[in-house]
Amino acid sequence: MINGATKKVLFIFLAGLLAGCSGSEDSERPGQNEPSDSTSTAGYVEQATFTTLEGDTVSVNDYEGKVVMIDLWETWCKPCLESFPTLQKLQEEYADDFVLLAVTPGFTDTREDARAFAEEHDYDFTYLMDSNGLHKKVGVQGIPFKLYVDAEGNFIKKSMGSYGPEQDYKKVKQIIEKHKKPAAEENET
Fold first, then answer.
1. How many folded domains does the chain comprise?
2. CA 44 – CA 51 distance, rounded (Å)
3. What is the bridge-based pairing of β-strands 57-59 and 155-161?
4. Global pTM?
5. Which of 52, 79, 98, 147 would disulfide-bridge 70, Cβ 3.0–4.6 Å?
6. Residue 145: which of 176, 177, 105, 110 has the closest Cα?
7. Which domain holds residue 156?
8. 56-83 confidence digits (pLDDT tens)
């Protein structure tokens, strides 16, 4: 049975999570070409590792050459799910330049919840679990929460909330266009 104090703590926690679902806030990395240290947001993101739904370890570095979006989401987050068709479209349009890592922080969802969602929906995302607590290290206070890494593996920016599917599409497309590998480099590989 849940006592009054536990209910209050749970309510405050859930209210904080839902607050992230309502607005949108962007934060770009100052001095983008400065080296990152291991205790900064950039350092945490650039060195991030996650666990696949099968239990394997995946690193952000595995996707060097592509713009990476780390999308922190859960199955109950309506704004998260509303943006998925838009993000799928971008992943298809920029198959050689962009990858979406759909990372469940585990606020309430389990690996089984994420697996059931992935099996029920036809998105080509890489579904992962935040097994190393990146969301805590970068101070995530609500979802959707997105972290971006450029094609060279450098942290670009973070963004909390959603602008709605149409505006999210435009903003993410701008990020991909600005940070993907130049066409000349693509032809060399």
1. 1
2. 16
3. unpaired
4. 0.79
5. 147
6. 105
7. 4-188
8. 999 999 999 999 999 999 999 999 999 9
